[in-house]
Amino acid sequence: MAVPHKSITINDLDAGKEIVASLRPTWSAIKCKVFDAGITNKLFGYIDESCTDKNEMILLRIYGKNTSCIIDRKRELETHLKLNKSGFASPVYCTIDNGYLYGFIDGNTLTAETVRDATIAPIIAKSIAKMHCSVPITSNEPIFYSTLCSWLAQLPDDLTSGKLVVLENIIEDKSTLLGELDALNSKITGNSNLQIGFCHNDLLLENVIHNANKQSISFIDYEYGNTNYLSFDLGNHFDEYAGVETVDFSRYPDETYQKWWLKLYLEEVHTQKSLGPVTDAKVDELYKEVNFFSLCAHLWWGIWAAFQTLNSEVDFDFAGYSRLKLEEYFKQKVKFFDYL
């Protein structure tokens, strides 16, 4: 069934209230909420005073300025629908010209503490494994290299002046990033054993929802969901233990923790695919892949943040974030580049 479309552009809370009322004509006392955790889009929530279940809330996502240059919004919607069909996302109610409306998922976003919780971490590992195994893909071509090439093509050659002056002691110009990308891709294309499949590609803590009552994990924000190297999703998730608003890279999980977590992930993959026991050698192999791709994720978000610095109107220090991610990329490259 096709998702209904309403030809309207909405930019404020009250205008969104009107379209929600058209979707829920029995709602007579609609309450509104602004979610301020996102750094790409605006997000509003609407629920009637008569509702007793938070899951009845309707969310309105309004796309950020110029984000269509780096996000395929049609693909984002298709991904949301696929994830909903596979049981990982809420329903979609309708689209508008600059966003869409969809269901709320009750629970708590992860924190630096809960992501490591001994009862929650296994659920996260197994849920990501289930997503990797069950969400269908429409292309067998991983998006890592092509996406970064596209983003870099839209950036000026000079990335060390003006709003991006904070990068002046990290890179010379855009060619530095192009060279790093090509070096990573040369490693990747030289390895024929890498597993590909559907990846969320943005498994930061705020995009993972834990429901304590159901002991379940759900994923939100699907702008970057697409075919990719599965180890990229895992490496990126480990990178995100550091946080976004307050970044602390010392939170990156150590080898003992990662291997414990990755064994749980692989055990679920093997269960989903009816494979045999998980060997230590398999865990060791995945551990190396994941840490290599943690580098790829640092470069990915460093370039993304540079683009956002020049284009976004969101109140966030994108330039500072780009600097942090690229500094960490070069720091960890010494250790992890030869893991693949």
How would you sum up this structure, described in words?
The protein has 340 residues and is α+β, with helices and mostly antiparallel strands. It has helices at 13-23, 73-85, 121-134, 144-153, 174-189, 230-239, 255-272, 280-311, 318-336, and strands spanning 5-6, 30-35, 42-48, 58-62, 92-96, 99-103, 108-109, 196-199, 208-211, 216-219, 226-229. It has nine helices and eleven strands. Helix content is 42%, strand content 14%. The mean pLDDT is 94.
In brief, what are we looking at here?
By secondary structure, the protein is an alpha+beta fold. It has helices spanning 13-23, 73-85, 121-134, 144-153, 174-189, 230-239, 255-272, 280-311, 318-336; strands at 5-6, 30-35, 42-48, 58-62, 92-96, 99-103, 108-109, 196-199, 208-211, 216-219, 226-229.
